[in-house]
Batch of 4 targets.
Target 1
Amino acid sequence: MRTSLLAKSAARSAMKLKALHMYAAVVALLLCSAVNFIQSPTDVFGPVALLEPTPSAARDFGAVVSDAPFAVMRPESAADVAQLLSALSSSAPRRPRAAVAARGAGHSLHGQAQARGGIVVETRALQPRAVEVVVRGGGSGDAYADVGGGALWVEVLEECLKVGLAPRSWTDYLYLTVGGTLSNAGISGQAFKHGPQISNVLQLEVVTVEEESEDTAISDLCFFAFVFASSVAGSGEVVTCSPTMNPELFFAVLGGLGQFGIITRARIPLQVAPPKVRWVRAFYDSFQTFTQDQELLVSMPELVDYVEGFMVLDEQSLLSSSIAFPAPVNFSPDFGSVDGDRKVYYCIEFAVHDFQQQGSAADHVVELVAAGLSYLRPHMYSVGVAYFDFLNRVRMEEESLRSRGLWDVPHPWLNVFVPKHGVEPFKDLLMDTITPGEFEGPILVYPLLTDRWDGNTSAVVPSSPDGVMYVFSVLRSTDPARCGRACVEAIMEQHRRLADEACRDGGVGAKQYLARQPSPAHWRDHFGSSWDRFVARKARFDPMHVLGPGQGIFPMMDSASSM
């Protein structure tokens, strides 16, 4: 009898304990549920301050994609960003599953800095905004600038010029953030000499999501619900990295398309800045001669400091390209008839730094270099301009486009790196998509040297046995009065077909730049032999796929897929 009572009592106790365990599990599941009962962003993350989304968070310069986020964050420090990523990256989904995109100046083209239903981190809010210039050893050889990831390059330039210094490598347009260009590559006419901006970085501060073990990732509250789950998780972490300190993260983030971390500070090497620049333009009627002379110029880095070039499609193209060039250009070529064959011309521009020392050699260098070029004589034009004005030259073109209502419009741009052997075929493919007289914007064409690109970074360039590749930048502005949504989509489809043809196996071996690929399979083809490395870096630094959803490379992980 006693034994029977004890047995019944034990059974009741076991049932109560089982019920308690089940109750705890249900409570944990409810608290950890991915289902959101959220009224506003401020209800969600407690000490992580989120704001209601703004229209700008769903818009970028390209103006062809608009994905609204759930919330916006304006962090004051890297620690704020780390706290957000910790909350989102935990494998226990009591937080809403949301991806994060870093947005600087909003100059992406295809929604890369947007996060549909996620959180946009506006890096322009990061503090401190000041640019700190450091000169060690009494000379400029070891000088550098510590700058915030949300600083604009024009702000960096203005501060550095106060002490007669400047970064070596630039972008054409200076109103972009440091973190934004370093997440892509950052190129301009100095890249043949110094490499892209990602080859000119000494150190970074990055907020990333380091992978961590299950026992530290799963909260105590959610333990009962996930005790048998196998998961991968991470915590937001502020990491200082360089080529010798945390090098894998350093190289992953440079050119990493925002997939591995958010750049919050960067250390940029500096050089002595010239007071002025001798800026030269020369015109051509032969594409082959145009490219040959460009390659001659980039073979003389000891003399020439900048090399670019562009197509001249018609009178409007010539006029637009002359807006920033502060010298008369007496070039009035025959472009042919509208109904007949149209003639296309080309312009090389190069620059020589002018330190204005006694017996300055800048003018002599220009004469020496020009003597070896085969341009259409006498159509070479040269002018001396302040160094700041030269680097800021695109600002004048921006103001012109704004005055004509062509700045805040869709920009279906196409940027492609083409190996030297494929330049002529690609040019022909491109011209088949362009009608002179209907095209608004420049088409840049200039050479880059592949050995100036560090293969450890995540950036992708084409294989070019002779070490020369060209960038083709088709920078079109569309007038909404003449080109509506269907017209813009038709241009983008044209660009997709052109890119597919140029980048496919058996094509010219090109690689797109600043593009959003249409599918993960396209991304795999884009990265080619470096795809496995890119995937491994993602698994290490963002295992839950929280970062960079706008690129469309990796689908976001959820608790089910990580179990």
Target 2
Amino acid sequence: MQCCSVYLCVCLCENKSLCEMCILELRSCEEQIFEWWYFRKYGTSFIEQVSVSHLRPLLGGVDNSSPSNSSTSNGDTDSSRQNVSECKVWRNPLNLFRGAEYNRYTWVTGREPLTYYDMNLSAQDHQTFFTCDSDHLRPADAIMQKAWRERNPQARISAAHEALVLEDCATAYILLAEEEATTIVEAEKLFKQALKAGEVCYRRSQQVQHHGAQHEAQHRRDTNVLVYIKRRLAMCSRKLGRTREAVKMMRDLMKEFPLLSMFNIHENLLESLLELQAYADVQAVLAKYDDISLPKSATICYTAALLKARAVSDKFSPEAASRRGLNTAEMNAVEAIHRAVEFNPHVPKYLLEMKSLILPPEHVLKRGDSEAIAYAFFHLQHWKRVEGALNLLHCTWEGTFRMIPYPLEKGHLFYPYPICTETADRELLPTVFHEVSVYPKKELPFFILFTAGLCSFTAMLALLTHQFPELMGVFAKAVSILLSACNCSIRTRAILKLHTPAEQQNIPSLGPILGITMNFA
């Protein structure tokens, strides 16, 4: 109706000239029509889209214009669930042994490599994997159920010994191998004893698993115990130099229990195959697990980049590549590195030894600093073994951030970088002696900074001239006199350089001419 009234007013105006009110109303009407058209086509307000996408990043804000941030309660619930899943903490597949490795570090340095939050998560994992509701039926399991909840390490070890007095308890052997054994050899012996006890319990519960929910839960617990023991035995073999034996144990374990992907045994297998330099087998594992439907990890992304870089890194030269351009193989390697760096941008600094490594935590946050430390701790040697791989990484990894749209958190090949990563990493990593790596920020070009400073300075001068014209006039005259004096001084020194010291005695008359006083002393 408002638009119709404006049109009627336009038609009735004499000489087809619009009054001022008509012009304002017509412009307002046009803006409303454009806003309505933009909203119908794109589903969002044009003004809101411009302010969120362009103005808020410049002011340092966070882009919250995702579809999940709707005004409905269901939208808020979905957004919160997405944030929780993005910041999910995962068990480190290559976590070290507490007694044989973490405690030895503490004895030597006096530092605690694990945080309370990390150890608390491990205690929750142990209670989830190694306990069930039927533990009260077996005295040894009942003791171990309380032992996993103890905070004092000595109390846990004492409870494990108490459980072994009653019967052969697989979880008791696991606890002693993890926390009491001071060497990998001792841990392997205890795990072998745990394997014997665990296989007996597994076969017993397998026969009665369909007799009820209680028996099914007990069989699921015994399965978790058996898989955990076999995986740790394979890791012991890998640490003791029996890599081929470790690879065989991991392959057999993955074939026997293909559905238990929560342990991420394929990442242990990838590291062992890289140690054997069996790159064809590594590619076969990647072809199976580097799938769009499966969760990614730094191990998968950076191992794929390493294999692509291995094909071209020995002959790669930045100067030659800048002259002739990149060929197909080099382009594939660079794209793989960019993909890996976008997934976890903290890894390159550890691989290039630009930042010092610490012992990896027992839990990692994907795409975070904790995952970068865990990956580089075990895979740095594999990158060094491939000639030129680190050089190619050094020349190309920073180019990733030029491909990601601003702000960087929006992402390019993966989902947006989680905002909560830094907070979770500070809980997982010992910040007392380690500086947590944060997501890099895109730096503005120098030309933009210089232009902004010049405009600000010009605006300030204009404001001061408008407010204090007389004072600024005096200031301008003083500046012009100073500049002229400097100019005369430069001209005089240039003239003196053209004459010898004897000829300079005949030039004192230049001083009054140039308006300055010359001193030849």
Target 3
Amino acid sequence: RHPHLYTNLGSLLKDLGYLAEAVKMYEKAVECNATFDVALANLGNAIKDMGRVQDSIPWYLRAVEASPNFVEAVCGLANAMAGVCDWHARDGLFTEIAVRWNAVAMANEEQTAKIFGVMGRGKRPTAKAYKRKLLKRINYVPAQSPKQTQGVDKRRGWMDRVVEIVDQQLSDGSTWGRGVLLAQPTAADSSSLVRPTCGLVGFLEDICRLVPRVSTAPVTGLAVFLHNALELVRLIAGAHDACEVPEDKMRCWKHLMALIRNEGGWALRVVERAAVLIQRQWYWDAQQGSQHAIEALRNPQASVYKRPRLPAGLGAPLVPTVLPFHTFTYPLDAREVRLISHRNALRLSFTTLGGGAPWLPSHVYPPPPPPDPQINIGYVSSDFNNHPLSHLMQSVFGMHDKQRFRVFCYATTPPDGTVHRQKIEHEADVFVNCAAWSTQRIVDQIASDKIHILVNLNGYTKGARNEIFAARPAPVLVAFMGFAGTLGAGWCDYVVTDPIVCPPWTVRCEVRAERERRAHIASSSGGDVAKVLPKPEMQEKG
């Protein structure tokens, strides 16, 4: 009797959509090991997915009892409490939960015996005894020091645990890739100089070979930065001690180290932005009549416009247990919501660009030719059916100026026969049903359609195919409508949003503009920087 085998088989059945069979396997796993937290939590998930949210809660409780720090169980329990609108239980009034679930269990002795084991001697417990046993089961400990955020208590009951878990996961994720690019001085090292690793030197050398400082394209700040950073890194790597480095260079090195403090995220961001420059360079070379650029358009496999690669030794980044779409139901501030989205974006980018997508070509995708005369706009969504997005967007596709734009719609789900789908199919210039297609085929189709602007109508919602955007088959990527918030992704150039769901202090370009504005005011006011220092909130969040 192996509970792990039953659990794995149950998970396989669940992934195939056989929920009832999956529940039976999980139950067998629990029979083998009554405290197996993974099986208990999976059983709760499967029962909840069957629409029996109320019945799932006792299983989550048992999982949390077996493993109080089991993230999936705690989050599943909090979500289930919200699913049955039991806000008191979710937010920590455990006397309420005891009374309510006591009434449920008392109405079904068999279920009570099966889940809580309180019928051991054939004797029904009193409500008071049941409540006491349940409080012990759920490991209830009153919060000693509630976490306050702008006067609002974020730590209450199960939601308290979820927020604590998210905070810890975000903190742990900030160390992704540590040691891959920067080498901290050891105790045996007489120098206190933080040195670049061979990985950082090689990474920048590879990037700079692909992104020249001067080319046919207009000079960009990133190209200049990368080449200056390479020169600086070589200087620091060759120094034996900090005293050998000129003072101005040391200041630059400290500034660069501050930028690289999240080593994995910085490297991934450089790779994504460098890919944009390389595709842009290809476009400019082709427009200038460069023979190798034109030949590369005919035969991309022989292209010199290679895709930059991540540094060796970089593992997959951690992602928080709470999904971006679920953050709207949690007491998290805008910065935490953005970081959760950002960590999910990092994982998806790493999976696509870091070798997890063997179909991705070694070159960047060819740039489309200039509009002649129409701009090709592609919309990708899994919701071109009877869905709120289609209710709102169904008329938009036919409202484009046909003289200036050509609209492509890529549907990643099969048709449902509703008028919403039919209207979109009729009014789009090109409608592609790619529900059964692989990601590679969809990406190749978008590239061959020579899309100029590709719009993501999903974001972090069910059915999203965000890896399409991570591959960047079009030069301009936009997020709109589907997900109410920033994607925090390098594979999204623009987001159509508002300052409520995306406060300006959580948007990189807004923070940079604010800093530049304050620096300009400081320089024009005689250098009295104290008068224009960023507000503490801006300084902290930026």
Target 4
Amino acid sequence: MRLINVSSLQIEEFYGTDIPPYAILSHTWEATEASFQQWTKRVTRIRKFKHLGFEKIYAACKRARGNGLGYVWADTVCIDRTSSAELSEAINSMYAWYENAQVCYVYLSDVRIPSRESNLDVLTLFRRSRWFTRGWTLQELLAPSNIVFYTREWVQMGTKQALAVLIREITGIDEGCLRGTRRVTVCSVAQRMSWASRRVTTREEDITYSLLGIFGISMPLLYGEGSQNAFRRLQEEIIKVSDDQSILAFNTDSSDNTLLAHHPSDFASQGGVRPSFAPKLTPPFTMSNAGLSLTTPLIYTMSPYWVLAVLNCVELHWAQEDVRARSITCLPLLGRDKKFMRARAPVTLISLGVDLVGNQGTLRSKHIDSTPEVGGSDSDSNTALAESTSTIAKTTPLEIQDLTTRKDTDILVTYFSRIYPLYGTEMDEAMKGFEVIDVGPSMKIPDRGFMIAFPRGMGSYRYLDSFPKGDLYPNISFFMPSATPPTSTREKMEENRGNVTRGLLVYSHEMAGRFKPGFLEEIEIVGIYLALDSSTGNWTCRILDLERRISGPDLEHKWIVKGDEMVLDKPEEWPHYDQQRNMVVAARTRFETTKGHPCKEAIMVEIVFDLKELLKERDLEG
């Protein structure tokens, strides 16, 4: 390690434990900077004394002498950049050098003390400083424990600790990391990547190389390999030493790679992602020439080609200074037979809400005790249903926030070029609904719809039927109900509540026999009633107990009317959760689709058929 002697201004070299206490300079490079060759020539140092590249090093040496330090390190003159071997060693060591410095002087050449006539204050200029946009200065902000900021005139502005709140607002970096109360290594991979997502470097590979120390990675520098190859190598090295699956929590839509990210900017919106700290060890995942071998719980859909992988990380949602909600990060995957690639449509990541802070234990849905037989005339049906809705359970179960299974599945996540030859024709046919839905010449793509998911699988239940039939797209697991309530029902609703569309999904227990239209038989069936109200923007989900004697032609009207009578009044109070016997349905997560297909906004409906087993799992977790 080379250091500048602040008294003689000569460069001296030190090794290992012989390195003396030193100050370190952080700055942004200007058009003309001092070099190692120039600084070692005394005549050149004197002649260029007033040049900014030299002047700031002189000023840093003066500050160090005033702080009782004998040495200063500056990247421009302490590294011989004509030697590629030395440059590589320095870049791999730089985080440690900043971390071990007694003090770091941050020189902001574009922040001047404003004149009295200026409308700008120094903190406004501080926010706008170029120093916060450069790739290399991220590690220079994180590594040193003691940082002092200076203006162009070398007027002290404050320390990192004193300005931590402001710096957090500028950079998005965790305030604990800035104050030194939280180690950078505790932050998730996705969170650290997000800090670099809006930073730039002169050489394209440097946006990757500037992150080596932040992730504790050492690797060869290959200038000329391109930013994508460099960033891929960094991610592969991180996977070798970390079990943090948030490295997969990036926006696939901005990358044409179906496995790893192309650039830190793919993580721009992932600043709230944290390690999950689940009460179990994360199974190892490894990279090979076949792809990424991963062991994780899966959330299934109605499509045989589309699942959601539950990653071992959570996203925190903030309101002012408090965490208001926590969500699991789910990775949509396309493929089958445990071989998948990342999906780009209808969404690249889903944050599945599992913990509503401040709302736990709140009653959000009403539960019907009795379910009368529905039959006879329409008027008889409506009368019976009106009477049934007055019977409310005396006790209501609390919402179960996390419905996902704890059972892991071994899968391979690989590249498009490997998956498409295997299942391309079938996937194209099954998944085309993500691109085009035939809504007729006078209609438009729906604003909202439901995505149907089974966080614990379907067990012994099977899909039986739907109403309206044409509104369910099982191959993509989307349901866009378009049916409006009949006039007889709308008359019982409050005024201006006619902007409701609704539908019904019907499932049967396979052990109770198979449904055969036209035959009368006893089967166990259950209905999931879903409704949308465009006037309030609200939606609802309900479980309808439909265990009775039925025949095929009786599917549509009498089942859907029962749901209408239960929930259509007061849409602004509609619940997003229902629990009956051994079932749960929840619709608490909504997200925008990437390309507006098959609808502009999707509401994820989670259906659980084994509530008792779910509760046993949670009891074992304590």
